[in-house]
Amino acid sequence: xxxxxxxxxxxxxxxxxxxxxxxxxxxxxxxxxxxxxxxxxxxxxxxxxxxxxxxxxxxxxxxxxxxxxxxxxxxxxxxxxxxxxxxxxxxxxxxxxxxxxxx
Length: 103
Description:
The protein has 103 residues and is mainly alpha-helical. Helix content is 97%, strand content 0%. Residues 60-101 form a coiled coil.
């Protein structure tokens, strides 16, 4: 009777080890699938970030061009305003001379 008990215990241990090996193999397959899925997701995120960075560069170039154009317009406007102020001063002086001459 001792031999069948030892055989049963031995077979039980073998089945337990085999079961543990199957569980570990299944866990490894599941882990590999998760790694693969995460790698695909990370590749997608990487592509999105690259696109966002490129769009940011494009926007920065466009904004710099707009700022340069606005600065040029502002400079032209300031120059026109300065010329208009000179003309206004000249006209006021001429008006004052005219008034003095006709008073």
